[in-house]
Design a protein that fits this description.
By secondary structure, this protein is of the alpha/beta class. Helix content is 17%, strand content 29%. It contains seven helices and 33 strands. Strands 21-22-23-24-25-28-30-31 form an eight-stranded parallel beta barrel, surrounded by five helices. It has a six-stranded antiparallel beta sheet with strand order 3-2-4-9-6-7, with no helix packed on it. A four-stranded antiparallel beta sheet has the order 1-10-5-8, with no helix packed on it. Helix 2 links the parallel strand 21 and strand 22. The longest helix has 20 residues. It is globular, with a radius of gyration of 25 Å. The relative contact order is 0.10. Bound molecules: alpha-D-glucopyranuronic acid. Alpha-D-glucopyranuronic acid (GCU) binds next to loops.
Length: 618
Amino acid sequence: MSPSFSCMRTRVFGLALSIATACACLAQQPAPLIIDVEHRSTISLNGSWHAIVDPYDTGLKDYRSHIRSQDGFFRNAKPQTPQDLIEYDFDKSETLKVPGDWNTQRPSLLFYEGTVWYEKSFPYHPKPHTRVFLHLGAANYFSIAGVNGTVVCDHEGGFTSFNCEVTSLLHEGENFVVVYVNNTRKAEGVPTLSTDWWNYGGLTRDVQLVEVPERFIQDSFIHLIPGTQDQVAGWVKLSDAAADQRVTVQIPELAIERSVTTDRTGMAEFSVSDKRLQLWSPDHPKLYKFEIESGSDASKDKIEDEIGFRSIEVRGHEVLLNGAPIFLRGVSIHEEAPYRSGRANSEDDAKTLLGWAKELGANFVRLAHYPHNEHMLRMADRMGLMVWSEIPVYWDIRWDNPATLANAENQLTENITRDKNRASIAIWSVGNETPVTDARTKFMQSLVKTARALDSTRLLSAALQVQHRDGTTRMIDDPLGADLDVLGCNEYIGWYEGKPEDADKANWKSPYDKPLIMSEFGGSALSGLHGNSDARFTEEYQEDLYKHQVAMLDRIPFLRGTSPWILMDFRSPRRLLPGIQDYYNRKGLVSDQGEKKKVFYVLQKWYQQKQTQEHSSQ
Ligand code: GCU
């Protein structure tokens, strides 16, 4: 029986705790995540929202820091008489676009970290036998949502979707939603205080109302059985524990139809096999329309999705896609919008970023360091790019804090719940550059265990660092390596460490008989800055560094993939060099304005060689 996907979480955000203790009615967990929202009946709430910038949380707490459970901004109150004292007014407040971070929408908010209140009014017409959920693609970092004056749920974590039931709160005519969003960094948060990416705050992804029948298809998992070429298995979970409910799954293109019934937990498992099944791969990103139907009459539900079938496994040093060895020609990507900066959030953004990756000759992308928006994954499915998906367990977080672990577990669970039917996703990564301590390794091992319990069909990895050097030999012997399927390693020979030519003498070893993905390497260059190849920040320096890198990488016997840092320059609060960085990390192969740097062609050429080698060995 497949595991339950209900969120395991405990509140770490001081605020949530004080809310929970102050007035239980203010803090509630989101409902179990509804999958495949893309193909459901939805009402978009995207567009302009009124916004109140509230640096002192005045809309939530009084001057004694007590929660304003009766007169907080969730009420969206208006003075009823001239004597009434109401010191806010959403209607008269400026607007912000949703989806979108607030930082790049107003110069005054570029560096702003704190609270912003969002309000949107919308007409609604309740329908019989219909439940309604408020669905948020992401809200960075901590958010509380309320509808028509009642708080419906709160959520921690800025990069995963969540939804809350609002059926009983909606009424005929004008309704309103208020969302409190706070992106204050916290030591016990995930991520923690320091990151090399901009802490974009806000309702950064699509917000919509999702309409479903009284009993609906809550979740499903469909996949090729690893090690087979033609056997598909999966399960469907209904929104309540209703037994003996008929569920039908179909692949119309193959005239496949299978009917099963739910057990007493509302779960139904199925399997089908068909020799005609075409498998998904980067060269042939075949997707099938997949339909699931359940129930009848008022509780009849039907969803469809585009599903690719492929298996991904390891055997010794090999990564096997559909049973055949593959080299993952990749690049790392931040969810930074091309040209306009800020959080990427649209299909067009995904097309542009993944289009550049394809131009590089990539068949793989590392989406760093947090789950990206769903448009990216669906585009990767369609374009034929395998994906490394990661949660923001980044650098040194509070390993010994149980609430921090629960938070990380929750983000991992939400990530896998949303994306497990995406053929493109090959690897779940549980973190990046985390220091080797017992508490950390125990923390990471717990995440690995959770991921394996949720999805046994994909590979587990993490971006590790070199722990020991023996002369010119670098050892990848992080103890966490024992728990992973694929070793990821970040190295910066020629940038943070020594000179580019030092790579020529570098050797790599690992005690683990596992494939290695060099998950980061690279150096910075300002697009258009030219000079000698030993002058940092010039395109020539970056180009030279990569030439030494690819020669070194070719000499690593257990290397099966690379995702250099990084596809495109991105905003970072740690990059302060005037005239060069100006709050941008310039390690991109492409500038934030889409200009390809010389290094782009070094990597493109190397990936062409890799592709030719692979085809000739098949
Ligand atoms: C680190 C880290 C990245 C960072 C990069 C850099 O390894 O994982 O998030 O941006 O190095 O320093 O440019």
